[in-house]
């Protein structure tokens, strides 16, 4: 069952309480991936990314172990991205480290401000948007990428039906690619981690 845990809940000891009542495996979503990383014993993958999306409690060591399966999912999704095109990542949050690993030449843009992030060194208009912001965070500003950009494809990291990326793609008549591929792959890798 999904259990909503806010950053404040986490900082107030939510994981300890959930562990006391029997939680042994957890999928961690943004914006808690950095907190999970700092709380657990991370593997090499998550140590490089400084973010964890999967936890399991090691009973004998009495410690939470962590990994990040987002990279596995993103690698699968990346096979759908046409090569030789200008790419921009819209949003990112807790997935930014993974996105930067997979798309180092992309332009990274804040979905809140519509401006390039500090470490983005590309200013050319994107032909592909990788949408990395969910409905809830998008609702705070309701900002879409510039409609003048020559975007032909929107690749959504979101896998929900109400993703704003669907509206954006329809509005500019672009090809829409759902994030279900990424979600399914990373979930399979989570299950493998839990069963080890």
- Widest sheet: strand order? 6-5-7-8-9
SSE ordering:
HHEHEHEEHEHEEHEHEH
Main sheet: strands, sense, barrel = 5 strands, parallel
Tell me the span between the first and last alpha carbons. Answer: 21 Å
- What is the typical, i.e. mean, pLDDT? 91
Note the quaternary state here. single chain
Tally the beta strands. Answer: 9
Total number of helices:
9
Low-confidence stretches: none
Helix content: 25-40%
Please give the radius of gyration in angstroms.
Answer: 17 Å
Shape: elongated
| Helix/sheet category | alpha/beta
Task: Write a compact overview of the structure shown.
This protein is an alpha/beta fold and 196 residues long. Helices cover 36% and strands 18% of the residues.
């Amino acid at each position: 069952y999904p259990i909503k845990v806010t950053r404040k809940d986490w900082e107030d000891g939510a994981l300890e309480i959930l562990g006391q009542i029997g939680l042994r495996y957890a999928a961690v979503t943004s914006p808690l991936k950095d907190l999970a990383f700092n709380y657990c014993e991370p593997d090499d993958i998550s140590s490089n990314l400084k973010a964890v999306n999967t936890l399991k409690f090691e009973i004998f060591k009495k410690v939470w172990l962590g990994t990040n399966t987002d990279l596995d999912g993103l690698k699968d999704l990346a096979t759908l991205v046409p090569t030789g095109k200008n790419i921009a990542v819209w949003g990112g949050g807790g997935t930014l480290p993974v996105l930067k690993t997979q798309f180092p030449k992309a332009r990274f843009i804040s979905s809140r401000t519509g401006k390039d992030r500090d470490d983005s060194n590309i200013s050319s208009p994107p032909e592909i948007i990788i949408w990395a912001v969910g409905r809830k965070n998008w609702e705070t500003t309701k900002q879409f990428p510039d409609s003048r950009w020559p975007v032909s494809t929107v690749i959504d990291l979101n896998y929900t039906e109400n993703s704003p990326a669907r509206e954006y793609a329809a509005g500019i008549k672009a090809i829409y690619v759902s994030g279900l591929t990424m979600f399914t792959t990373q979930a399979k890798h989570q299950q493998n981690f839990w069963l080890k």
